[in-house]
Design brief:
268 residues; Rossmann fold; 11 helices; 7 strands; 40% helix; globular
Length: 268
């Protein structure tokens, strides 16, 4: 299965190679990927019905710790879960003092009913839902929250849409968006979880070179050889500089937050 512009189009045979590509671009990922606005965590607390402060949070697929650091800053007792050695090394370099466990969402190395939140920042689509959802349910306490969110470039903006169209043509079968934002409810339903989705809009001001570095950390480009990747990045750089001749870009995002609560009836 795969994703492209909200639908699955990525061959399952490519899944592992794409996932493993992140280790080689961990520094670029940490330096250039977008963060998350504080409104996301306000909304997460509202939908979960409890504050993050003092809550036990497992941040699954934590990568270099972009979301982990923000969760910790909100007062959460957070443990990052990351399978990639390269990403884990960058995490430890970027967030010294934060807890990290090597593992994946499909097999969480934690006791039953040991967490208040299980979060997936830009990560749920890298799990196998038939394994990751029951694992999350297992480790969550009664009334705990499974939360997944994605920053998605706003394709209603012309230059964003044009960039996506170019990449889709250049990388047929591997370029992908985030279809899991729409599919997550169907993955949760078999386990009695009802998804509530909230949509936020925000933007960041970055240089064209920053955006190119961000692109280089995307799995569909990171998995390519340098000989294949660099010409594609050169095309994007040229197109972006034609659109933004001063070298600065306002990059718009739609941020999809999904929260599902486990039943609280057994709370002690």
């Amino acid at each position: 299965m795969a994703e492209q512009d909200g639908t699955r189009t990525r061959p399952s045979s490519d899944f592992r190679g794409l996932a493993e590509s992140f280790g080689g671009v961990a520094a670029e990922y940490d330096r250039a990927r977008p963060s998350y606005p504080q409104e996301l965590f306000d909304e997460l607390e509202r939908l979960a019905g409890r504050p993050l402060r003092g809550a036990r949070v497992l941040d699954v697929g934590a990568g270099t710790g972009i979301s982990t650091r923000l969760l910790a800053a909100r007062g959460a007792d957070v443990v990052a879960v990351e399978p990639s050695a390269g990403m884990a090394a960058q995490f430890l370099a970027s967030g010294p003092g934060l807890a990290l466990v090597r593992g994946s969402g499909d097999e969480l190395p934690f006791h039953d009913h040991s967490a208040d939140f299980v979060t997936y920042a830009q990560a749920f689509h890298w799990t196998a839902p038939e394994r990751s959802v029951p694992e999350a349910v297992r480790v969550l306490r009664p009334g705990g929250a499974l939360a997944a969110w994605w920053n998605v470039k706003d394709s209603t903006v012309a230059w964003v849409r044009a960039m996506g169209e170019r990449l889709a043509v250049a990388l047929p079968g591997t370029y992908h968006g985030y279809g899991a934002t729409k599919e997550i409810a169907s993955h949760l339903a078999p386990y009695g979880l009802r998804n509530t989705q909230s949509v936020l809009h925000w933007e960041r001001r970055i240089t064209v070179e920053h955006l190119i570095t961000d692109l280089s950390s995307r799995s569909y480009l990171a998995a390519l050889t340098p000989q294949r990747r660099e010409p594609l990045l050169a095309v994007e750089r040229e197109a972006l500089l034609a659109e933004f001749p001063d070298g600065w870009v306002i990059e718009p995002y739609v941020l999809y937050l999904n929260v599902a609560l486990t039943p609280a009836r057994n709370r002690a």
